[in-house]
Design brief:
Blueprint lengths: L5 E4 L4 H13 L10 E7 L2 E9 L2 E7 L8 H15 L6 E4 L4 H6 L3 E6 L3 E5 L4 H8 L10 E6 L6 H13 L2 E6 L9 H11 L6 E5 L18 H23 L3 E5 L5 H13 L6 E5 L3 E3 L2 E2 L2 H10 L2 H7 L2 H7 L5 H9 L7
Parallel strand pairs: 4-5, 8-9, 8-11, 9-10, 11-12
Antiparallel strand pairs: 1-2, 2-3, 3-4, 5-7, 6-7, 13-14
Function: Acetylation of prosthetic group (2-(5''-phosphoribosyl)-3'-dephosphocoenzyme-A) of the gamma subunit of citrate lyase.
GO molecular function: [citrate (pro-3S)-lyase] ligase activity
Protein name: [Citrate [pro-3S]-lyase] ligase
Length: 348
């Protein structure tokens, strides 16, 4: 094992990346679109082991079948963990095939959830997820009807407000989870503020930051499957496995989602929820989208495009006054500029 060293692979080293792609392909993995650091182990001119990071996740981990059992994965993981710690990331996550989860357990990672035969979601803190569950705010009394919404709100629109109001009217309590990962065009602190202001007139909501455990499209690995539909369905199934544990902790028996007529990703996600949540005793309530004109549903994508285009007449029809006030303030200038500079603001 001492004869091997781990090398950092720079983004411009096309030759090395080609060799890494070859190894990943041999091991049934394809390169993930989201990577910010990659390393490799060579034997001569051949890449025999590799691993990468994205944010505080480890991914694209592979060892050539000709070299398995020589401790190379241990070297790769140790290198990446050291790198993460240097970046200030001490709470780490990884996704791996379920058949290799036991190996990573020996390296100090603990399984949070899995899809049998496909993927395991793991973290390096023994009680990380349990600690997250314990700190979730709860009501003083246990109400009968308890619902949940998971919302990115990029930004918070009249459609989001309508969905929240409906859930609040039909239930005694709503747990509203705001996706806290900062990968959206509108920063988390802004999104959270707009959600709070846009729902301030409702008195039966408990708000939660999603933390690391409600999986986003940005962090979920697509490299275990070749088919995009399978990737989306796998993400949804793993996300729901985690959400089910949260729901059991909080007594949630309903999850509200907006109907999605245009987004492939969200529509597939909704379908998985419709199929899988009732198996866990949770109803999935799909709410028809609020429309701003005949057959024109309100969406965050339409809103971002209107912001990009400077179409304030349309924004008047899409946004509650609290969100409009923000975008018309000086505080919003950096956010508006970020949206205008983005090539793609419509999410499919």
């Amino acid at each position: 094992m001492s004869e091997y060293t781990v090398s950092k692979i720079f983004p411009f080293d096309k030759k090395a990346h080609l060799k890494i792609d070859t190894l990943l392909h041999e091991e049934g993995i394809r390169r993930d679109a989201h990577l910010d650091c990659t390393c490799a182990i060579y034997d001569g001119d051949r890449v025999i082991a590799t691993g990468s990071t994205f944010g505080n996740t480890l991914r694209c981990l592979a060892v050539s079948k000709d070299y398995q059992g020589e401790g190379l994965m241990n070297l790769i993981v140790s290198h990446l963990v050291d790198y993460q710690f240097e970046q200030g990331n001490t709470h780490l996550f990884l996704y791996t095939k379920t058949c290799t989860a036991r190996f990573f357990a020996d390296l100090g990672f603990n399984e949070i959830a899995r899809i049998d035969g496909l993927v395991s979601f793991m973290e390096n803190k023994k009680t990380g997820f349990q600690d997250y569950l314990k700190q979730l705010e709860r009501p003083q009394k246990n109400p009968d009807k308890v619902a949940a919404i998971v919302m990115n709100a990029n930004p918070f629109t009249l459609g989001h407000q309508y969905l929240v109001e409906k859930a609040c009217a039909e239930n005694d309590l709503l747990h509203l989870f705001i996706v806290s990962e900062d990968k959206s065009l509108i920063p988390f602190d802004v999104r959270k503020k707009l959600v709070l202001k846009g729902t301030a007139h409702l008195d039966n909501i408990i708000y939660h930051d999603s933390g690391y455990y409600i999986i986003s499209q940005a962090t979920f690995p697509s490299y275990f499957q070749k088919d995009e539909v399978v990737v989306i369905e796998s993400q949804a199934r793993l996300d729901l496995a985690i959400f089910t544990k949260i729901a059991q902790e909080l007594g949630i028996t309903r999850r509200y989602v907006g109907e999605e007529p245009t987004s492939l990703v969200t529509n597939l996600y909704n379908q998985v929820m419709i199929d899988k949540l009732p198996e866990q005793g949770i109803d999935c309530i799909v709410v028809k989208r609020k429309e701003f004109s005949e057959s024109q549903p309100i969406s965050a994508s339409t809103t971002r495009q209107a912001i990009k285009d400077g179409n304030w007449n349309l924004l008047d029809q899409l946004l509650p006054q609290t969100t409009l006030d923000y975008f018309q303030s000086l505080e919003a200038k950096p956010t508006i500029e970020r949206i205008r500079q983005s090539e793609q603001v419509i999410h499919y």
